[in-house]
Amino acid sequence: MTTRAPLGLPRITRRRTVAFGICVIASIALVLAMPHGFLDLRVYRLGGATLLHHPSELYDVHLPGIGLPFTYPPFAAVMVAPFSIVPTPVAAAIWSMLSLTCLFVIWRHAVRLTPWLLLGVTAASALLEPVRQTLGFGQINLILCAVILADLLGKNHKTRGLWTGLAAGIKLTPLIFIALLVVTRQWKAALYASAGFAGTVVLGFVISPSATTHYWVSLVNDTKHIGGIGYASNQSWNGVLTRLAGNADGGGLVWLVLVLATAVAALAFARMLWLRDRQLAAVSICGLAGLFCSPISWSHHWVWIIPFGVVLLSALPSKARIPVGVGWYGLFVLGPIWWPPNTGDREFDWTFGQQLLGNAYLIAALIAVAGLGVHFARSATVGEERREEAMSS
């Protein structure tokens, strides 16, 4: 029989402990079995080590045997420098534990569940392709997502917004969350976020003026040094347009127009949601908008589908939640973007059906966001009609 904990929650029984321990171990084993070998973490370590010993060469070094460069702002190298000091297995173990902890934090801010259920959901969500890719590559996406959710949804800390600004200093896409703070007139948080981001830029100039100048003048707009825009993993507007056009030049003017339209629409929608006390929905919409608008949004960047999925399901009737939930999260477990031929510019020869599969993340997100918009628009209309009826009666 399950007893009650002092806080009123059921104690985690021995059977539950064993079951979820197995789930967590299985999740870690799944990640370790992935063929990516913590590739991005190795690049982070390279950047951190270079910053410590030869800071001016931060963007000149390449990972031996593969040739990948460090592509993040200088502040990112500062943050990962401690991981370059310890042996690779130790760094990989600590990074994985930190990422899994952040995955738990993401779910904790997205849905209300007992701790043992949160642990189970966290373990199960390691099967999501963006999550398992993030863990396999040793990417930073789960960490940034958790930091931003904790910062923006936590209203009790005095420096709210600061951590979002620091996150933007590590990876530029979180800048959209500073725009969210501005359009919702959260001036104090916006000031902290802006100051945090500006501080990361200044710190970069203090540590390595030449490397920082090179990044902000030359590299920040150069997407070619990051990877192939048309590669199947790039689930952004730019990636989709590049594959549709069948060449590697990117989306061009059409992409810029789509980015502007997406940013304006997303921020307007997010503002409406925030003012209706739907903060998780507002932040999740901005997270997806950042993925749409970024020149390159690799599939492992798409961890924002976790909180957005919760928002989507909460807007549905109870009978529809299970099938839609299976469909939404199931899509990201299966990862159909990898089914058509890819690499070596084979994406440029996709058929119409292969385009649908290969761009499935962005297409599914667009449909879901549009459906959510229709839902809230109807809710607003119904609310207005009821208020008018109440006033006239």
Would you mind describing this structure in some detail?
With 393 residues, the protein is mainly alpha-helical. The protein has helices spanning 14-33, 39-53, 74-85, 88-110, 115-124, 129-137, 141-153, 162-170, 175-183, 187-207, 209-219, 237-245, 252-275, 279-293, 305-314, 318-334, 352-358, 360-392. The protein has 18 helices and no strands. Helix 4 packs parallel to helix 7 (141-153), helix 4 (88-110) runs parallel beside helix 15 (305-314) and helix 10 crosses helix 11.
**Radius of gyration, in angstroms, nearest whole number:** 22 Å
The separation of the N and C termini measures 55 Å
Number of strands: 0
Per the principal axes of the C-alpha atoms, what is the gross shape?
A: globular
Strand content: under 5%
List segments where confidence is low: pLDDT < 50 over at least 5 consecutive residues: 1-11
SSE order, one letter for each helix or strand: HHHHHHHHHHHHHHHHHH
- State the helical fraction: 55-70%
Structural class by sheet pairing and helices: mainly alpha
